[in-house]
Design goal:
This protein has 5 helices and no strands. By secondary structure, it is an all-alpha fold. The longest helix has 29 residues, at 2-30. It is elongated and about 80 Å long. Heme C is lined by residues 29-30, 39-40, 43-44, 47-48, 51, 86, 97, 100-101, 104, 131, 133-134, 137-138, 141-142. It comes from Gimesia alba.
């Protein structure tokens, strides 16, 4: 009898735990724990413009001059910072998110390095790998 009661209480508690964990995880995805910037604003305000700007510059024959290469490097550097921001303030809910952020960090760093050397082939290859991180995280976490 006591065992049955304990089992019942245990089940109720785990169900409650799942509900609580579930809500925190989705709250984290949309926003970090203490800072006000919502994930969608990091995406719209920083990720999207820098990713689009970089993609445009790396098209065809690549950045036309010193200044354009420096702008491409600037986009890559900003994207790299977002890779770190996405892991900060308790925003990361799981391994998929962490893995995608890690890819964003490492591949944007590779783009940055290639831009400093004005190596279009290496920059484009790393850019392509970097954008796979967008798809990987969105598939798991973007509603
Ligand atoms: C680690 C996870 C993660 C990575 C990596 C990521 N995103 Fe997102 N992105 C999200 C989530 C979560 C949302 C949905 C946010 C919401 O609606 O609350 C989102 C939403 C967006 C949006 C819509 C923003 C809006 O205005 O509502 C755009 C655009 C976007 N991402 C672009 C990108 C691009 C481009 C990349 C790659 C360079 C990228 N994201 C990488 C998690 C990620």
């Amino acid at each position: 009898m006591a065992r049955k009661l304990m089992l019942g209480t245990g089940l109720v508690l785990s169900a409650l735990g799942i509900v609580i964990l579930g809500t925190t995880a989705s709250a984290q995805v949309k926003q970090g724990k203490t800072r006000p910037a919502e994930t969608k604003y990091l995406m719209r305000g920083i990720v999207q413009p820098n990713c689009a700007g970089l993609g445009k510059l790396l098209k065809a024959s690549g950045p036309a001059d010193e200044k354009a290469w420096d702008t491409a490097a600037c986009h890559a550097a900003c994207l790299n910072e977002v890779g770190h921001l996405l892991m900060a303030d308790g925003r990361c809910p799981d391994g998929k998110w962490a893995g995608a952020s890690k890819t964003l960090q490492s591949e944007s760093a590779a783009v940055l390095e290639a831009c400093k050397k004005q190596d279009l082939k290496a920059a484009s290859a790393a850019f392509k790998k970097m954008t796979q991180s967008c798809a990987a995280c969105h598939k798991a976490h973007k509603k």
